[in-house]
Design brief:
By secondary structure, this protein is α+β, with helices and mostly antiparallel strands. The chain is 29% helix and 25% strand.
Length: 200
């Protein structure tokens, strides 16, 4: 059974107008090559989108992330992004605002940002080929740990401290079929790290 596109956390969404319009344009600029490479997209047979992208806003825990079930869109604008205003990893609660609810991966993105203040952007992509190729070669999460959960946050912290994730900037999500995640100080770095995997 496809375990994708479903919220694993308690979501508190405050509907409202789009904010951070310039940041949304930056996200769209770097999302486009990911979409064209089918690292973000949709499982058409079941109508479920996959993949998402985010960037930190300010020095706190705020970040702008693609909205839930937007993977199928060839292009996005500011109405397709949600501002995560608070994320309580321990309590498994995400608070967001804007024209759309945050991606089901918002908790995982938040856990990456919590690893260090220098992390400015996160990409979550899907690729069966890359997932199989890099499983166990790049820092790889425990296959028993599900995406979008407090357990995933703890697992990513372990990989960052002990398994080379700090250096690689890319992890394979063993318990999330086809899932990979990358991060960087900038959107360009986070996206390039993911796209570079296609060259191997």
């Amino acid at each position: 059974m496809l375990d994708e596109g479903y919220l694993k956390y308690e979501s508190h969404w405050t509907p409202g107008p789009a904010t951070h319009v310039a940041a949304a344009r930056d996200l769209e600029h770097w999302r486009r090559p990911l979409y064209e490479a089918q690292l973000i997209g949709e499982y058409t047979e079941v109508g479920i989108g996959y993949g998402n992208i985010s960037m930190r806003r300010g020095s706190g825990g705020l970040f702008l992330i693609s909205g839930t079930q937007t993977g199928h869109l060839p292009t996005t604008d500011e109405t397709h992004y949600s501002l995560v205003t608070d994320c309580d990893i321990r309590a498994n609660i995400v608070r967001c605002s804007g024209p759309i609810q945050a991606s089901s991966e918002a908790m995982t993105h938040a856990s990456i940002y919590a690893l260090g203040g220098a992390i400015g952007a996160v990409v979550h992509a899907h690729s069966a080929r890359l997932w199989r190729h890099y499983l166990g070669k790049l820092p790889t999460t425990d296959p028993e740990v599900a995406y979008g959960t407090p357990e995933m946050a703890r697992e990513l912290d372990r990989l960052y401290r002990m398994e080379g994730l700090r250096e690689s900037g890319v992890a394979v999500l063993a318990g999330h079929d086809e899932g990979l995640i990358s991060f960087g100080t900038t959107l360009e770095e986070a996206t390039t790290r993911m796209l570079d995997l296609l060259q191997d």
